[in-house]
């Protein structure tokens, strides 16, 4: 974990709603898919707090420097101000933060489920799995065609049967919600496959909840990347907690520290 | 040019500089070790400790507001025993000067925590949170009136030989009288301000944004209120005053010193900039050099009226 001064390399709109941000940082960072950064740098105190963004990619740049990439959707004042910033301008980043996906052992069957901009933490997981030639399928859902990630961002290529697109208005892929597709596939899976299955998911809480219930019903494992409002992002304010099961009791755990990725069975949905 | 003297005295306690972290915004201190050497700070003030571990309030604990934030954490903490066993030795190992912020549901609980902490030889001071607005039974009952503060301060004073700092709530009509009561009851210093009670609601869902309905406002939005209160209290009491509220830059910190604060604490600024405390410290030193001042003492309380 480090706090660094970064410089925007690019910050461009893609399609209707996504921005892709690349920031040059003093040295390369390693990250686990699902980990995030706290980003700030717009002028003034409103918004005051940095914004959490999943690390989409990170790598080396010439002269021993590093680069970090993000994908974001403009939803409010902070992301709107961010989208107005230009290459060369400075951002402050604290990264990498939190506990990412456990990509565990080989021999498992992975389903990666991303709803909305949730693909920003699912794609890095896909890239890591593709890199070690592990089997996976990806389910991506959005309201409409324009809100799906551009094809060329898809890691590991779009081999047939690997990427399932779903839109709520039927403008691309399956006509309906991604949860329906995942639930249907789950129902049809053999017991042997269910025991090999690991679902990794990120998206709106309602989506995660529905899939978590369906997975629990079949006894499949699932890791869910949760979101919450954050002030610090590195575990010192205790503002970002969610309720988790702790034996018979409920305990409050920090999304930024013990999460954002949690075992879906432990989450009190 | 000689290095300006950054050291300050808080009663019998001498700190190497006036910059401290504010309780609840700095975890237990060690979380900041990746960002800088925490022994550089005047003191680290840790998250409020209670007798037993406290789970805190349900989610929906923070809301951002214009140039500030509301929090209703509900004082989630690991409890005094675990702090002493697990955290204090590490703070000591890091070479940090540290103070413990404490709270209780009753005066007896405050007393018990203070007594327990007294055995910790490396502990520099005990800061009594007489003002948390987010716990129903919490300090507010004590912090609201001079009589309550007097009772609480006397009891904690008797329970420990450590320097006692009483942290004051701004949610009162006359903060100088409350500070005077703390002074009269044996406080070594007062620290102010804690957060200002506020509220945020969602006009569409028609619900409060915090699970606790109300919360404490912090950040740059509260600085003018904090500065006024620190100034008022400095004119009223002789014990040292620790200035807190919306400090983000060295200039902000210097303003508090100018109206008479002996030291400052930096809170919410740590969230956006984890290096805020050291950057403020470096900025104060640079300012003293630039102004060719011999040290903090030459500048402090020098407001021209
Ligand atoms: C670990 C983590 C990783 C994230 N990764 C990404 C990412 O890769 N790409 C991306 O586009 N977004 C991501 N987000 C969400 C992103 O942080 C928020 O969209 C952003 O903070 C909104 O800021 P704003 O000022 O634009 O909107 P605001 O004006 O603050 O809020 C706009 C609306 O969004 C809601 N909202 C804002 N922040 C959150 C939050 N953290 N959780 C739930 N609701 C929220 C608000 O309640 C409000 O209704 C992530 C969040 C977390 C916690
Ligand atoms: C998230 C959060 C938690 C806090 N917890 C405590 C606490 O446990 N005890 C306490 O005395 N003050 C607590 N405070 C108050 C701060 O120490 C400080 O008095 C206040 O935030 C004003 O300073 P600032 O504007 O620099 O943040 C907390 C503040 C915040 C934002
Ligand atoms: S955001 Fe501060 S503890 Fe998680």
SSE diagram, text form:
The complex is a heterodimer of chains A (269) and B (305).
Chain A: E1 2-14, E2 18-25, E3 36-40, E4 51-54, E5 57-60, E6 66-73, H1 77-83, E7 90-97, E8 109-115, H2 119-131, E9 136-142, E10 163-167, E11 174-175, H3 178-188, H4 191-196, E12 197-202, H5 205-218, E13 221-225, E14 241-246, E15 249-254, E16 261-263
Parallel strand pairs in A: 8-9, 8-12, 9-10, 10-11, 12-13
Antiparallel strand pairs in A: 1-2, 1-7, 2-6, 3-4, 3-7, 5-6, 13-16, 14-15
Chain B: E1 8-10, E2 13-15, E3 19-21, E4 44-49, E5 62-65, E6 68-71, H1 80-93, E7 98-102, H2 107-118, E8 123-129, H3 140-143, H4 146-159, E9 164-167, H5 175-184, E10 189-192, E11 196-199, E12 201-202, E13 207-208, E14 214-218, H6 223-236, E15 241-244, H7 250-258, E16 263-266, H8 269-272, H9 276-290, H10 296-299
Parallel strand pairs in B: 3-16, 4-7, 7-8, 8-9, 9-10, 10-15, 15-16
Antiparallel strand pairs in B: 1-2, 5-6, 6-14, 11-14, 12-13
Helix pairs in contact in B: 2-4, 4-5, 5-6, 7-9
Bound molecules: flavin-adenine dinucleotide, flavin mononucleotide and FE2/S2 (inorganic) cluster (FES).
Flavin-adenine dinucleotide is lined by residues 36, 47, 51-54, 70-73, 75-79, 117, 120, 227-230, 260 of chain A.
